[in-house]
Amino acid sequence: MPLIAELRRRNVFRVAAAYLLGGWLLTEVLTTILPTLGAPEWAARAVILIFAFGFIPAVVLAWFFEITPDGIKRDHEVDFEDPDKQRQVRKLDQLTIATAVVLIIFVGLFSARHTADDPSPIDLGISATSVAVLPFENMSGDKDNEYFSDGLTETLLHMLAQIPDLKVAARTSSFAFKGQNKSIQEIAGELEVAHILEGSVQHAGDQIRITAQLIRASDGFHIWSKNFDREFTDVFAIQDEIATQVGNALSVSLLGTDAESKLAGITTNDYDAYELYLQARKERATYSYVGLLAAENLLKGALLIDPNFIEAKSELANSYVHQVETGLMDSETANAEIIAITDQVLAVHPDDPVAKATSLYAKAMSLVAMGDTAAMRDLASELEIIVNSSPASYEPRLLLVRAYTALQQNEKCLPLLEGALSLDKFNPALHYELGMAYIRLERWDEAKAALEKSLELEPKQPNAYTYLGAIAEQSGDGATMVKQFINAISVDPQDHELPGMLALFLYQVGLVEIADDFRNRVLTLAPTSPVAYQVELARARAVGDLEGSIEAARRAIEDDVEDRRLAFSGAVQHLIRTAVKTDRVEEEMAWLEEQQPGIFDVDSTVVPKKFRGVRGTAFDGWVQILPREEVLRRLDVLLAYASSFGQDPTDKPATHVSILTLRGEIEEAIEVALKDLFSQSVALNPYWRDMLLQPHYAEVVADPRVQEAMRRWEAEEAELRASVESYFADLHAAT
Fold first, then answer.
1. Cα–Cα dist 642/612, whole Å
2. Which terminus of the chain faces fewer neighbouring Cβ atoms within 10 Å, N or C?
3. C-alpha span between 417 and 175 (Å, rounded)
């Protein structure tokens, strides 16, 4: 019998085909499943080899044995001419063919699903080259080893963020899921990424095993996985090595490029310094006095351990920016410190985006303070370049937001913040900044939602509470405003400005005794601060002590108080308006010029920042002592100056009414007052009487419609005072 026919008779071909088909299918499935189970790479290769070596024995067995309805028999014991045997063979052939077709279809679909390029996530608005690095799981059984798994994750995040075109979810958002029992798909959906990198760390004695795997979120397919077995010697060397390999693998897998040469690790090899740095970043995120001071001390500690720790230096410089914003440091001192620190960083890493942006910001602020109106526009242009070249770094974005805010280009802030949030969705600081942007655009509901989200993520943010209070204030809800300020004070009791701002509001509505409690806190915490001067002036005004308020205003001007929260310009304005009431305008304005030379020089092209706000307040006095033509000339000069700085004073209703009144456009002034000014809550216009009772507003105030609006404000003021007083009564009763 020919060999071919004999092989067919003995079903060798059928067995071989079934073996190859089944082996192929099983190999495809196992090589996909095994990485999911954390199996080492060799496991998949072992499966393939086992099936390869098993082929010959399977064929040999098929030659010698047959499967019959009566069990397995030797070949010579089977009658192949038996009709029943022939029917069995035909049925077996049919079954084999049908099974093969089904398996081919199934495997085809399986392979198409798992080997094709990433399904486009365009419909979901998710970048196909986006990834989140979840905290690597510490499987060592020893919590003390968690520093290594967290450190590895940090290093991976730091290095991957450097790969161009790879969108990497930031640390804050990635670590938000630590310890949470959520699926890959759920996490990817919340972070808005197409891929998840996860892994585990096992540490036993001197050995460490690290497993890393890249998962496609849409279907859970493992695009890449690898095990690393190392001796546990140099922690940072291991982290850098593995992070580099993972980063390069991800770059190849997602971008088709080799990124190894572009990756740079953290610039310290001391884990204690690194740990202090991480703690500092967390503390800074609260924007509180306590948090910022703690961050500063932690960073200085890190730099004592490792003076060449670049990231710690950049973070320290950035923390000083926030210290200025919260009043912990004056701007002149802070800018000098920032420039000195960032110069050190840039000497080593001239392209560091955070250091470059922070340095530019400090230098621009110094120029602005000296009267350089172009400095802020130049800053914005340079920051735009940095942001575009380093999209994964959110600190330059925040500084650009501040530049746009100073230029009153508020509409440009939202895309910047939304872009940052796409990388760091669970960062409380970014949600806070978004809330602030909405406030500047007067989109109150969206502002409230953003600030509440920020507090949900980080409840110890005093500023988020204060601006929720400001939102309540703009609607006339004084009780809620006060409640939010008290919340802020409770989470940051060292911040002297918080009780100061609350005291100013309480003096405004006439609740002197309650305000005195918060005034005393200010004087205890920071008796020489700008807000301390403000509360002293506000108290004298609230109790009707005219001479006392003049004395308080003069003291602030003589001491050249910083114009933080308008402490200096507010004192100047009060002094001028009081001088009008007492017929001492020429005398007091001459005294002001003597104390602060050039303060009212409208024709100067270089104007210190401090003087900008006060020149507008001088019109209350100028209109009494200067010819009308000169008053209007000075008005035009100042409006042109504001325009050159990117500002439109008419955006503020009170200023707009003032401009129209000075020009003699009385009917227009009345219309703006009724439409824009009196439509606001009285709480947003604390000293409306001081403004409207100035002599040059007489025609505006005489209008019956304005009289009615003023009576409405007086009624609102009474209701506001009653609601706040009731809130404090309930608060004291509860305690």
1. 9
2. C
3. 20
In this structure, the dihedral spanned by the alpha carbons of residues 472, 401, 174 and 392, taken in order and rounded to 10 degrees, is: 170
Residue among 584, 580, 579, 535 nearest 561 (CA) = 535
Distance between CA atoms of residues 535 and 520, nearest Å: 10
- pLDDT at residue 115, as a whole number: 44
Containing 168, the helix (H) or strand (E) segment is strand 167-168
Side-chain half-sphere of 35: how many Cα atoms within 13 Å?
22
Cα torsion angle, 36, 39, 42, 43, sign: negative
pTM of the predicted protein model: 0.74
Find the Cα–Cα–Cα–Cα dihedral 563, 569, 575, 579, rounded to 10°: 160
| Whole-number pLDDT of residue 284 | 85
- Residue 406 near residue 377, CB atoms below 8 Å: no
Query: Residue 265's pLDDT is what?
Result: 66
- Tokens 């009772």 sit at which residue? 693
β-strand partners of 207:
204, 231
Copy the structure tokens of residue 500: 């100061």
Residues 57 and 184: their CA atoms lie apart, in Å, by 42
State phi, psi for 345 to the nearest 5 degrees.
Answer: -65, -45
Report how far residue 538's alpha carbon sits from residue 152's, in angstroms, rounded to the nearest whole number: 54
Q: Are strands 137-138 and 195-204 parallel, antiparallel or unpaired?
A: parallel
Closest CA to 452 of 477, 440, 469: 469
CB atoms under 10 Å from CB of 263, counted, come to 20
Burial letters 587-609, b for 16+ CB under 10 A, else e: ebbebbeeebeebbebeeeebee
Contact (CB, 8 A) for 680 and 474? yes
**Where in the sequence of the chain do the CATH 3.40.50.10070 domains occur?**
122-266
Q: Class of 122-266 per CATH?
A: alpha beta
pLDDT < 70 stretches in the chain: 1-56, 58-125, 141-145, 147, 233-236, 239, 255-265, 645-646
The confidence score (pLDDT) of residue 114 equals 46
**227, β-bridge pairs:** 211
Q: 3-state DSSP call for residue 460?
A: coil
Number of H helices, E strands in the chain: 34, 8
8 A C-beta contact, residue 557 and residue 571: yes
pLDDT given for residue 190 in this prediction:
87
Q: Contact 651/408 with Cβ under 8 angstroms?
A: yes
Q: What pLDDT, on a 0 to 100 scale, did the predictor assign at position 504?
A: 95
Of 585, 615, 620, give the one whose Cα is nearest residue 601: 615
Return the beta strands (E) in 193-343 as ranges.
195-204, 207-216, 222-231
Helix (H, G, I), strand (E, B) or coil at 349: coil
The contacts found for 297-304 with CB under 8 angstroms, 24 or more apart, are: 301/276, 302/268, 302/272, 302/273, 302/274, 302/276, 302/277, 303/273
What Rg value do the Cα atoms of the chain yield, rounded?
36
For 569-583, the pLDDT digits (tens) are 999 999 999 999 989
Q: What is the DSSP code (8-state) at residue 256? A: S
